[in-house]
User: Fold these one by one.
Assistant:
Number 1:
Amino acid sequence: MVVVEWVTPEDEYVCTLSRETQEVAKQELREDKNSRDQALRQIREWIKLNPRIENCRLDSQFLLKFLRCKKYSVPMAQEAIERYLLLRQVYHPAFNNLDIIDPVLEDLLALGYLFAVPGRDRKGRRVIVARPGVFDPYKYNNADMCRIHAITYEALMEDEESQVRGFVHFADGAGVSFPHLTLFTPKEAVRIVKNGERTIPMRHKEINAINIHSSVKFALDFGMSLISEKIKKRVNIYTSLNDASNKKMDTSILPKEYGGTMPMKEMIDLWRKELVALRPTLLSHDKMRVRLEMFSEKAREGAVSALKQGFGCAAVGSGDSIQGITGSFRKLEVD
């Protein structure tokens, strides 16, 4: 019998949620001690007996983010975990080596392309700032873009309060032009958005955007067509920061440059410290693996049809080539 050394072992869950957040978890997610303990036990047994999963984290903090995102539907959480592990592996240029001391990630963070502001908004949520216009599409590629998103989201999801309270997104579209839109083909964009919404265990509570130029409105319309109705209702598009402020969007927690009090550079420096502290955890994720040959070719490619049909395993003949999502990335050189 082969003894698996899991990325992290089982642990005894100790609740770190504030009383207020525990109440939110109970009301919105149906979470209490009994449901939590029972679901964790079921998920762990399922992982250990699942022939498709080769290695995974078994600690409560990791598993609860899937259970909370799926409101304690164990089957849905199981599906999300399996899909998450598979996509991390086949999308490996974009999800592995999430190391903040990597020069590319350092550069993108310093530019303020994507970062989380310190503290929380009035509803206890972390706020993520995106500035896609500062991303140089001639210097960086689509995997670089995915990696900075992956390290940001993975780090944020390690926090229990955020797993329950969810996230607010703020995007400034200034500087976005047609070259940015050519980083991904329409097919890649569809697969990334559809898989991301179904797989990344984040509770997206609010999405605000400003400065969307009319020349890229078609891309915005296309993106809106890909997301679920639930998320679509949480999207607010403003013509400018003044327009957003006039329509009562809370700017107090944003960088000083967008109406807050703390300069953006200070926020970025604080966020970098958070990423450095989580560096061992994020790098340990590269040890998680599934057995690719036990998934259908469509599932390995991240095809939307595989999402619609469910995410079970399918027999794959030895003659099948594993193209996977990795093959859809252009301009990648993987050492």
Number 2:
Amino acid sequence: MDQGNNTGISEFELLGFSEEPELQPIIFGFFLSMYLITLFGNLLIILAVSSHSHLHTPMYFFLTNLSFVDICFTSTTVPKMLWNIHIQSKVITYAGCITQMYFFILFTGLDIFLLTVMAYDRFVAICHPLHYTVIMNPWLCGLLVLMSWILSASHSLLQTSMVLQLSFCTVLEIPHFFCEINQIIQLSCSDTFLNNMVIYFAAMLLAGGPFIGILYSYSKIVSSIRWISSSQGKHKAFSTCASHLSVVSLFYCTSLGVYLSSAATQSSHSSAVASVMYTVVTPMLNPFIYSLRNKDIKKALIRFCGMAALKP
């Protein structure tokens, strides 16, 4: 393959976490367990909310969308890694790598936007309770989710299209367990200045912007809770957004930790290990956070499991 010529590229190699054969079964079992927990945990949330009419509210509508996105988010990376370990291969095709990168960026953006929409929902519920049903009507809820999909898909398409314009050198080894866009750009022989600028600008706009929106929503929520006279009322108001606040903190802290640790160590292997936190661990923990801290979800899960057990 000629240097700088990407017409002959057919595949990349995902180096993963370790090349030692004795560690592969442990890694396989570890990630398979986490993937199954993520899959069934989020699926239970979706089924429990869908099967109980009293949970057909904006908050739980957004929660089911988040659970669906978390399933897709994890399924974008983990199954391919498990399959490569199973067949003892590190290869991913060029088309497969680009596709994986597109869907990874798509579902990452959806996670961010849905968490922001859920923060707005809690803001309206606590700060404007008398107008909640009027403001958060089904039409607006559907529009917010649709806009989240459109913005995320457009951003992902832009990033992927720019990567498709790059030429690659002969070294096509990705020191990661999935096709992460920064790692792919580093393999390019082309000038990647524009790609990096778009990534940084998009990160500030599409991640930093929603984060500021979430902080603003919760500043208003805290301010409103302070004016509630009874301690019971304060506890009830805070408990309605405690689960969401926990998920937001987990997602943003792990994501920020990944980039800070990778910037500090300059180690691709360390970055791959740290990426497990927000790509696998966070989607796995989300169902537990919502079910353990939410009485309505716990009751719905118990009823759903009871109905499922009674069916022949």
